[in-house]
Structure formats: C-alpha cells, structure tokens
Amino acid sequence: MSQSEKKPPIANNKFENLPSGLTNGEVNYDVKEEPLLNPEKQIREAIDNLKSSDWSKQFDACNTLKRAMMFHKALFENNSTYTAQFFKDIVKPVDSLRSQVAKNACMALSTAFSEMAPRDTDG
Fold it and tell me: pLDDT tens for residues 64-91?
C-alpha cells in the first residue's frame, strides 16, 4: 500500500471530542462547585461560544456561565454588558436541535433567574 493509499488512524477514544460535560456518552449537566480561575476572560469566551456552530462549545459555555453566575454575581449586576450579552445570545442554544444543548441552555437561564437579583434580569 502506498503512502497516498494509507487510511487515517482510528481514534482510540470515540468520546475524545465531546465537551467536558459529556463523558463516555453520559451527559453531566452539573457544574464544578468552584469559582472560575479568570472569570472575566472565561465569561467573554463563553458568551462568544454561545454563538458558535459547534454544539460542544455551546454546551461547555452554558456550564461556564452557570458557574459564573453562581460564584461571580457581581459581574452580572447593574445591567452589566455580560448580562445583556448573555440574555441576547442564550437564545441560539435554547433553540438548538441537540436536546442536550437546549436543556443545558435552559438550565443556564434557570441559574440566571435564581442567582441574579430581579432588577438585573430586567432588560
């Protein structure tokens, strides 16, 4: 068999490209019970990833944002830009055809409404 006819190697782990919340085919909607290491940077990246066409990025973004709202509430207070962007961009994953992404996005919304003050959720 020549070099051009060689088949690509087969991945050892069929789950290696799954988001962190999906391991071994199991869906994990729970988030780590710890603050983010670099909250402002991670929140910006997560909000950008909500708009991604990659469903695994959307799933992980929802988990990151849930952690941010639980441990870094001050960053979402007083109609911050993070709050406005979150509520604007969460629509795409909520409407996802991938049920795991849609469910996780709904859970992120639930976390937002339970963790944030009502004045901060009014647009």
Answer: 999 999 999 999 998 899 999 999 999 9
pLDDT digits (tens, 9 = 90+) for 28-49: 787 788 999 999 999 999 999 9
For the residues of 7-26, what is the DSSP string, one character each?
PPPPPS-TTTTS-TTEETTE
Residue 69's identity, in one-letter code, is M
- How many C-beta atoms lie closer than 10 Å to residue 110's C-beta? 11
CA–CA separation, 51 vs 34, rounded Å? 25
Beta carbons within 8 Å of 29's beta carbon, 6+ residues apart: 21, 63, 103, 104, 107
Query: Coil, helix or strand for 2?
Result: coil
pLDDT at 5 over 70: no
